[in-house]
Structure formats: C-alpha cells, structure tokens
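Tokens for Elongation of very long chain fatty acids protein 6. Go.
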Amino acid sequence: MSVLALQEYEFERQFNEREAIQWMQENWKNSFLYSALYAAFIFGGRHLMKQRAKFELRKPLVLWSLSLALFSIIGAVRTGAYMVYILTTSGLKQSVCDQGFYNGPISKFWAYAFVLSKAPELGDTFFIILRKQKLIFLHWYHHITVLLYSWYSYKDMIAGGGWFMTMNYGVHAVMYSYYALRAAGFRVSRKFAMFITMTQITQMILGCIVNYLVYEWMQQGQCPSHMHNIVWSSLMYLSYFVLFCQFFYEAYLSSRLRKALKAD
C-alpha cells in the first residue's frame, strides 16, 4: 500500500463508514421519494416549458459537467487503484466478493460518495428540460434505476459493488468530460461520442458477468449477496444493454444505412 496511488488522504482516513452505512440502512428508501420528485419535475417541467422560450444556460452547464467530470475522474482513479491492487494481490474472486471496498482504506469514502452522487446527478435532466432538448426514455430511466439500486445495495455491502462503482466512475469520467467540452463550445469528433456509448455497452456486459460470478460464488458461501439483489441487478444491466444498443443504432448507424440504401 506504499504506492502513491494507494496512499490515504486525511479526509479518506477520517471518514466514518460505519455511520455512513447505518445512515443508508435507515434512509435508503428516501431514494423512492427523490425518484418520484424527479419524475414529477420531468413531466411538470416539460409542460411548463412547452409555451416558453428555451434557456441557454451554457455557462452553468459547463460548470456542472466539469464538476461531475472532475469528481468522476478522481473517483475512478481512487477506486480503480484499490480494485487493481486487490485483483493483482488476491485474485478475481477476492476483488468481486470482498466487502473491504465498503470499509477499506481509500475506497470506503468513494463508495459512499458514489451512491450519494446519484441524487444530485438527477440535475442533468434539469438542463435538458430548460434548454428544451430531446429527453429520451433511456436518460431518465437510467437515472432513476441507478439511484434506487445504488442506495438499496450499499446498505447491505453487496458483493460486486467495487467493480460496479469503479466501472461507472470510469465511464462517467469520460462522459462528463465530453459534455463539458461540448457545452464550452469545443468541436468534438462524432467518433468520441460513439466511443462513449460503446464503453457504456461494454460496462453493461461486464456488469452481467460480475453478477454471474457473484451468483456462482454465493452458492459456495463466499460472496455476500442475495438472490433478490442479483435478479434486480441483472434485469437492470440487461435492460441498459438493450437500450444502449438501440441508442447506438439509432444515433450512429441508422442514418448511414439509409444513405447507403439510397446510394444503391
């Protein structure tokens, strides 16, 4: 643990994960309230904006996206360093099944920060509605289900959470960096957007693989989880996989296919 990337900062060392886990066990159902308020804002906000001119909000959007990008980058570096260390020193099974991610050095703070961040991340939709941009089902469905599942799982310190969170941190680090660049007016290659969607699809495949490993090793009494969590998590990842594949096809492939057919 002497490697620079694995050295604890004082705020990480002082973080009390027991209080955090206890708070989540007592309050995780609030995620349903936040989701309901979020859904009400979506439908109410779209109705109110129907007869109003759109807001620009470019500068606030740059700050918003940049803040989430920096948070995700740091989270990906810190949790990634921890997971790679466990993987290389103790093996794949330990990295998947060990609950140390929730209470170990470095990662314990970032695990809690991750699940809490799913509530403020709902603010992404605020900009879409006020700027009168297209709001797709995948966007708000993803936000709601990730919030519900993250808070539901953290309280039980579910196996596999270390990989779930690390992957999500990594994808969001790239995604929000892209959003920040676009909001700031930089021209970003379409291929970069395609790459982001491909990483999201890959994340869903890996999430299903981790769920399978948790299920297999849970039968041996080595992975702390339960069937309800595995079922809900698997359904969530599979639905994301289908929706992201559909989005990839409609956003990047369908127009090219139509052009190719016209050319023929």
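The chain has a mean pLDDT of 92.
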